[in-house]
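Archive transcription. Copying these from loose printouts into the bound notebook so they stop getting lost. Printout 1 of 2:
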Amino acid sequence: MLFNSYPFLLLVIITFFIYYSRPFERHQVLVLIISSLIFYGYTQPYLLILLCLSASINAVTSYAVCFEKTEKRRKLLAISGVTFNLLILAFFKYNRLLDGMAVKTISETDNLLHLIINIPLPVGISFYTFQGISLVMDLYKPAKTYNIDIDRDFLRHYKKTFFFITFFPQLVAGPILKAHAFFPQISRKYLKNIDTGLVFKALVMGYFLKSVIADNLKDQTFWITHPYFETQSSLTLVTMLFGYSVQIFADFAGYSLIAIGVAAIFGYNLPQNFNYPYISGTIAEFWSRWHISLSSWLKEYLYIRLGGNRKGNIRTYANLITVMFLGGLWHGAAMSYGVWGLWHGIGLAIERFLLKHKRHNLHPGTSLRFLRITFVFTFVTFGWLLFKLTNINEAVNYIIAIKKNTGLTNNFSVILNVIFYSLPVFLYHVIYLIKKNDFKIAEVIFRHDYAVYSVMFVMILINGGIPGEFVYFQF
């Protein structure tokens, strides 16, 4: 079920009225669980089996980890819980690689094995398995700042865990929730406490980014695919690539904002997932602003546990590259995602080495800051080519086409459309910079921000593109 569909709108409306009605005020969590199962099983109901299995095993494992008194058994249970989540993710996410390796060794009569291997990728599996790992790890070694009150009553813990894993606003494409941030929020909610300003702004901005920007840009960046890009000029190819960079931001940031807005309707706060990433002056800053819930998850549960930056420079560089490589593979089985992760991991390592003895340049002047922003945006944009063209040979050929297609006629229809629909995203980032630097015009803009949101709302109604799936649904 897509956020930009009428069935989703109907589901939210019906859930809202039941959720806040007096007969169900003590069963709000159960109402959201039922709505979540309807949301997830709307098109592929059989996948509910895997979702329920994942939630159930995480509930059992986390409960056992929490209340087991023997440290050795707690550790074994925690390892088992994490391993279970990783095995589910690995099997369903990378079964195509297994199929490729097994196709020469199994006979055509082994239809059952073929059937299992070729089960479609369950939507959202990358997100809810990471949340399961978060729950087990948080309870195994809780930090002093964590506040996870686990019920002694297993059934109540089971219900809360099931809710945490399946909460439908973020179930399919995040933001990735951490147990220690979500569990304390599970309580009775009241209609009067809804932050209507947050809901309105998050939903309007989210649907504007998705419907007006991303859905219109996707019709232009379509020509990046093979073999169509072979016939495009160098300028058109570069423009489309930068347009795809804007599209993937608008698509995923739009999804995250819609998720935040819908969750707020039901009284739950989801973490910010994007913080104006394209004004980043370093690659490290970019990853503190892009898909924040994933980057913070990788830092907290992987990078730090590998030693972080506490074991010398060489180990730090190796940890950065390893974590980004694994983060790349998290996105899919294609080796292009691993190469994309290496692209960012090596970039982070080189950047850290270069800046190690130049701390005085961390706050550069306006001109140098602009050059850094331009470099980082270009670096990130060319990395996105590995998302669009998951065949590495095609990605390489695209770069070659940029170099050799200088004499071909420019496709000004595509170029102008990309510029037109990318402009609001660049203005979105520029306005943030204006506000950050305390320019007086920022006061005027933010004093009349509801007028801006009203214009965006109208644009959603009259200029939304043909609805398409969110880019991160495939991950």
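Printout 2 of 2:
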Amino acid sequence: MSPEEIVAITAKHTYGTWRFQKNWTPLQIVDAEGCYFTDASGKKYLDLSSQLMCVSLGHKNQAVIKAIEEQAKKLPYAAPGFATEVRADLSKLLLEVLPKGLEKFYFSTSGTEANEAAIKIARMYTGKYKIISRYNSYHGSTAASIAATGDPRRWAVEPAGKIDGVIFAPECNCYRCPLNHSYPDCEIACVEYIEHMIKNESNVAAVLVEPVVGTNGILIPPKEYFPRLRKICDDNNVLLIVDEVMSGWGRTGKWFAVDHWNVQPDILTTAKGITSAYVPLGLTATTMKIADYFNDHYFAHGHTYEAHPLTLAPAIAAINELRNKKLIERAVELGDYLNKKLLTLKSKHPSIGDIRGIGLFYAVELVKNQRTKQPFNTKEDKVSGKPLLVDKISTELMKRGVYLQSWVSHFIIAPPLIITKDEIDFAVEKLDECLSLADEELKK
């Protein structure tokens, strides 16, 4: 088939997700290697967002590919009721890298499924049903996960995909505080409000949070936030679930973002970088205290592809690559370099309201006014299909050979952890050029 036929069939017969279907013309990708992917015309693009913030090792990592090949030859599938060597090997490895105390694992095939399992486990274990999530969060697209999501993707799904029992707390956003406070004078009011919610609600089973919020703006909490949240949960007999689907596996300069605050969650969910996205794998990890409950109580969850051998083998390889190539330490070093480059951009462009990040996980937020922090677009614009300025800039970046994810009013910079300083320089230079579009909007 010609490239035109491939694109036409894709657009006509498959759904483009989180979008209106009209005028969807997806770019055909034919190859990818390292930090780059190639379209059907032969043009290469620097992958500054690791596709969907997931190809952490870069494209065509040979160790991960070899692990998939060898597992396919050895044992391509086994029903989840059987033990396999690869399942045991990955379990042993996870005990070494996960936050201490997480010792029982449920393997699925995506981050949304990992969160579905976490919510069900929390409800079964506690006998309570309410889940506190936060506004400006994203936890997945299936029923419970989208119900626990705070961004406009939930609005578009309601009421079809909504479950009962999810309530929302204010997010932790020191740039745009939902409570109109300023850190540190706020005394972390956003987390204190969660305790107020727990005490004024009945039947709260768990608090579900992204330690560093991903799609919704790379929101990093102050150092006091997570220790206080841990204590609030303990004092009120509520579980703490951390969603590390996007922030895990070295992305923030630690194995997991929650490690920055030395806090041990009751349940951790993750996916994406666990296999560098070469094969779909989700993980729900719990404490043994939670696990022991199910010795005498029915564990009412499972699916056909649970603990699929072909998903587990590449996870082992990916974890070893992170270790052997010291990519987590590298994320700290290159994150500092990226931060300096982006701050220089901010000094040049009045359209940049904020630069924030940790490790190789950054947001560039655009505003009409740096003082009032008024954004160019809103969440309502996103779900209504109104053209967004950040999407226009992303399109211009693609013309210059840089792929960068955008969301409402900011960009998400999350390159493969193997990116070089030269590649960062190239990407920031092209972003610098394209931000003139935003600066011009300020004059209108």
